[in-house]
From TrEMBL:
Residues 78-159 form the Mga helix-turn-helix domain. Keywords: Transcription, Transcription regulation. This is Mga helix-turn-helix domain-containing protein. Pfam families: Mga. The keyword Transcription regulation applies. PANTHER family: CRYPTIC BETA-GLUCOSIDE BGL OPERON ANTITERMINATOR, TRANSCRIPTIONAL REGULATOR MTLR.
Length: 498
């Protein structure tokens, strides 16, 4: 699920234009954008002009009724997401709910220079979006209550997509130093080695948690009790404790430390096999999710003939678990407006359609056989995790027990057949074997019998032979990407007939 519906129409149209141009390999026509945004040609031209006037790193070039996106090589689509979040009054109002500086809708509306009815409409739309996650927006006083883990996770997603820097988060260097000291000590005590993504997540959550505590929104007491991790910093040195008191009005204590590192104390992030074993004993819901994940990985192993070492299995299992635990109320995946994971899977599907479609089928069969329901974004997220976490997944998806026999026939030059063989071996996946035959060594009446001995015939010329039941594909001298996809798809379709 995403919160793009909160963006006003103009911002959503502009975002759609930038995304379509960013991911397109070719120019995009005015008519294509009109169809995407359900708007007229003049509206498209106005949106493009506005983008060129307001976005520093993106410019759209119009030529022959089509558009092309220009940007520096070091700028990614994340810059556009951050820009539109910062420009959206809807998401500005969402951010105010974290700080709780304005107790009434009227005061929040005045701060944002919008009408009170507009503020109510935005809050009602936001409430509708967040209701499935058991999150409620109260208007007297103005605040967000309910599922505390998802509330904090929501603001983490907001900070991440808005690209809020550590310096913006902690304007005083001393505050950042205190947060980093506590997080580092926690990691050292538990033997955790975090990626930069996780380090940033902890720094975001440290700040968000203290703000929620400042406004009297703690976790329920039993939520943060676990025996699976060590607590290293029970007593913080006076300097750091004083900084937290000044910045957040909170006295540091073991309970506050648990709140700031709730991802671990609440068993929302599981890092090691030992943590997992203890978490399963402490939480019935985690034990259930863990069992389903084991079933899923066994199902994958059986369908893909894949073998993992114990370390690989635990890494893959905890990666899947950590995505599922936080989203367990809905079995959906939440993002605000960024769609990198969805686009990753979609781009992979364009390049490897057969493999990705096979993975989708395997996952969907597993859901049906185990009577599980997962929303569309949740399905895409699971496919993303497998593609980025499971070693050699594409090769496994391409492999079938049945070996496909390919015959290459080229009359371009004596060396072309061998070049084509080498090129295909480097670009095609699966269980196949390539052979060469010089048809002109045989009478034409024997050609059909020769060709029928193979599963797929690739030629550099038009080969028309009657009563041949095997597929024949004419291939360019240098095979195009589309032709490679066709050959790959044919190999996998033939293998599936085993």
């Amino acid at each position: 699920m995403n919160l793009r519906s909160l963006l006003n129409r103009e911002l959503l149209r502009k975002l759609t234009i930038i995304e379509s141009l960013y991911y397109s390999k070719e120019v995009v026509s005015v008519e294509q954008i009109q169809e995407l945004n359900h708007c007229s040609g003049p509206v498209v031209l106005n949106d493009v002009a506005s983008i060129n006037d307001s976005l520093d790193f993106f410019s759209i070039e119009k030529k022959n009724n089509s558009f092309k996106l220009n940007r520096p090589d070091y700028i990614g689509i994340d810059t556009a997401y951050a820009y539109f979040l910062s420009q959206s009054v809807e998401f500005q109002l969402l951010e105010l709910l974290l700080y709780e500086k304005f107790p009434t809708v009227k005061r929040a509306a005045n701060y944002l220079f919008i009408s009170i009815p507009s503020a109510h409409r935005i809050l009602n739309r936001l409430s509708d979006c967040l209701r499935p996650w058991n999150i409620t927006i109260q208007k007297m006083p103005l605040r967000m209550v309910g599922n505390e883990a998802m509330i904090r996770h929501l603001f983490y997603l907001y900070y991440r997509e808005k690209k809020v820097s550590v310096k913006q988060l902690y304007p005083r260097e001393e505050t950042a130093a205190a947060a980093q000291f506590i997080i580092h000590a926690f990691k050292e005590a538990n033997g955790f080695t975090h990626s930069s993504v996780m380090q940033l997540r902890l720094l975001y959550n440290f700040h968000i948690s203290l703000l929620r505590l400042k406004n009297n929104h703690p976790f329920e007491e039993k939520t943060l009790e676990t025996q699976s991790i060590c607590s290293p910093v029970h007593k913080l040195n006076d300097q750091y404790a004083s900084i937290i008191r000044q910045e957040y009005g909170i006295e540091w204590s073991p309970a506050i430390q648990k709140e700031c590192l709730w991802l671990y104390y609440g068993k929302y992030i599981i890092y090691t096999k030992k943590q997992l074993e203890i978490a399963q004993k402490e939480s019935k819901s985690i034990d259930e999710i863990s069992d389903n994940t084991d079933k899923y990985l066994i199902y994958l192993k059986r369908n893909l003939q894949v073998n993992w070492t114990e370390d690989q299995y635990i890494h893959l299992k905890t990666t899947i678990l950590n995505e599922l635990i936080i989203y367990r109320p809905t079995r959906d995946f939440l993002y605000l407006i960024a769609t990198q994971r969805y686009n990753f899977v979609s781009t992979m599907e364009e390049r490897y359609p057969c493999q990705i479609q096979r993975l989708f089928k395997i996952y969907q069969r597993f859901l049906v056989e185990n009577e599980l329901e997962v929303a569309e974004d949740g399905v895409f997220n699971q496919i993303y995790i497998l593609l980025t976490s499971c070693p050699n997944i594409l090769e496994k998806l391409s492999y079938y027990k049945k070996k496909i026999h390919l015959l290459i026939i080229s009359i371009i030059s004596p060396t072309h057949e061998h070049y084509l063989s080498s090129y295909l071996r480097n670009n095609l996946m699966g269980n196949y074997e390539i052979s060469h035959v010089n048809l002109y060594d045989y009478p034409e009446k024997e050609w059909r019998k020769i060709i029928q001995a193979y599963d797929l015939i690739l030629t550099s010329f038009t080969l028309s032979i009657s009563n041949v039941t095997k597929p024949i594909l004419a291939v360019e001298s240098y095979p195009s990407a589309d032709r490679l996809k066709k050959i790959q798809r044919t190999i996998m379709e033939l293998a599936e007939r085993e």
